[in-house]
Each structure stands twice: as structure tokens, then as C-alpha cells.
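User: Run a structure prediction on this.
Assistant: Running it now.
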Amino acid sequence: MVENVPADSTDANYVPENELLGPQTFTQGELNDLVRDLDLSKDKAELLASRLKQKNLLDKDVLVSHYRKRNFDLAQYYTTDGPLCYCNDIEGLLRRILTHVGF
């Protein structure tokens, strides 16, 4: 506990710096990280992005529809047969993933 500290005349007027700047908007990368961290489905990710856009909390270049096609590149490696879904090209899928992450 701090005792006997003289009050500064500016203490009563203190405003945190981040409040002076206003709200900070999300970039596409930051939004993608948030969606991944929250483990959101495509529909929920798109809903979150839409709501943030309505509140002007997204950068102007962020695409709300980005999440509709997020699995499009990998869909070719999977086959759906009735209630089953399976990888039809494991080697190709691993090559694609490793190429994407830079290995």
C-alpha cells in the first residue's frame, strides 16, 4: 500500500491511453486467430464476423464471407459416402498441409 503520496492535480483527470484512441478494429489475421482460438464452426465464425462488422469493429478490408470457403481447398481430399466421410488421399492431403505451413 502506498502512503503519504501527494495527490497530483492530473490524477482526477486520468484517462487510460487506450480509451483516448477509441475502439481497435480486428484485422483479418486477428479475426482468424480468434475464430481458431474459440474453435468456431464456419457458420458461427461468419456470424461473429458479421456482428463485429455491424459494430464497426473490423478493418475495412476484412471479409465476412471468408469463412464460407475455408475448407474448400481441402475438400478434394475427402469423400462423403452416406453418413461416412473419409480422406481419399492421405498422401496428397499431407503434402498440401506441409506445403501450406512451409515445410
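The mean pLDDT is 84.
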